[in-house]
Amino acid sequence: MDFRIPRGTMDLMPGEVEKWQYIEEKARDLCRRYHFSEVRTPLFEQTELFRRGVGETTDIVEKEMYTFTDQGGRSLTLRPEGTASIVRSFVEKKVYGEPQPTKWYYIGPMYRYERPQAGRQRQFHQFGVEVFGTTAPGMDAEVIDLGFQFYRTLGLDGVKVELNSVGCPRCRPIHREKLIEYLTPRKEELCKDCLSRLDRNPMRILDCKNESCREVTEKAPRMVDHLCDDCKSHFEEVQENLQLLDVPYVLNTQMVRGLDYYTQTAFEFVIEGGAGSLGGGGRYNGLVEEIGGPEMPGIGFGLGLERTLLALEEQGLELPARYGVDCYVIALGDDAKKRAISLLKELREVGCSADRDYLDRKMKGQMKAADRMGARYAAILGENELKENRIKVKELATGNQETIQLDRLADYIRQGRKD
């Protein structure tokens, strides 16, 4: 049988994995500076969590979830996004009883049954943050700023923030009525999915990617024109805080995001090119309560790492991802091979990466192996060097070579690693 990787997934090979590690390290360091703590949740949850959390009328729930029944007859779903799981953990662990706000982040795989394309896979990865316990507009701006700084730290140009307010349960009903009133005479122009949402959740129609639906909704009533006083004031303060943080943004009054739990602030990070939307998020003041907790506000984002890497590639940005070993030990002769075993141990104990030959190759073959591994140094130990308690060290990039005391090798390589 010819086994192949499932459609919409990727093998990350050596040389590529290091790029992922680099951007993940950047995300973790950024979160440390913004005082966020990491949380890791299961890859699958009860299906009902996503139905209630993400929303019955979303494309995710209606079309894209990987759902299965386990041997106990329970319906489980591979997580299609990160927020619902994080909120479930927040509620289940009763973190709402601790001093607020709570600031968490996560990095990991998500799963959606979509048509695979550049930057969009069925198993994809997100870096996300969630904040609970405050409605302060300044926190909305801080979360947006963190996401923007992530792209800036990686060196991406042209990233901009698209911003909108999707209101709250008090002002949404007015907009809903206006929207139904506007769309009903035009319902024949809507796709099948949007037609089914007209009565259930007309705001979802604004998120449709179908060209005919987009033409219909281009002049539809805008939520920002129907905000209550609290939502309007909140939105104005978010914008003021973003200006103070020097975060560039543009208003996109058609944006509603693809999830039902958003209230008030909604935003996306977009860039020209194949990557398009890099990620986004928003405020979700009713989600904790919906999932069984007390009334507790929240805000967060999820950023696609595949799309981030695609954008970096499109801009020709090489990540300084380190690959290869610090030192490849070349041992010639039986006694030298035995000494090489302890040399590797010494190198690794001081924090250096090291390897040696295990195929009994000659000197030339071992040097080729060192090159293939991307070794910075080759340490050459023959019988004569061993008798003199010395070793030759060659820097492969320059060809420079010198002979040093054998017991100095670990410190020599460690120092070169720092330079």
Descriptive labels:
single chain; 419 residues; alpha+beta; BirA Bifunctional Protein, domain 2; 8-stranded mixed β-sheet; 16 strands; elongated; histidine-tRNA ligase activity
Give a quick summary of the entry.
This protein is of the alpha+beta class and about 425 residues long. It has helices at about 15-35, 45-55, 60-65, 85-90, 135-155, 170-185, 190-200, 210-215, 230-245, 285-290, 305-315, 335-350, 365-370, 385, 410-419; strands at about 35-40, 45, 65-70, 75-80, 100-110, 125-130, 160-165, 250, 265-270, 275-285, 300-305, 325-330, 355, 375-380, 390-395, 400-405. It is elongated and about 90 Å long.
Can you give a write-up of this model?
- By secondary structure, the chain is α+β, with helices and mostly antiparallel strands.
- 38% of the residues lie in helices and 21% in strands.
- It is built from 15 helices and 16 strands.
- An eight-stranded mixed sheet has the order 1-5-6-11-10-9-7-8. The protein has a five-stranded mixed sheet with strand order 13-12-14-15-16, sandwiched between helices.
- The chain has helices spanning 17-33, 47-54, 59-64, 83-92, 137-154, 172-183, 192-200, 211-217, 229-244, 287-290, 305-314, 334-349, 363-372, 383-387, 409-418; strands at 37-38, 44-46, 67-69, 75-78, 102-111, 123-132, 160-165, 249-251, 263-270, 277-283, 298-304, 327-331, 354-356, 377-381, 390-395, 401-405.
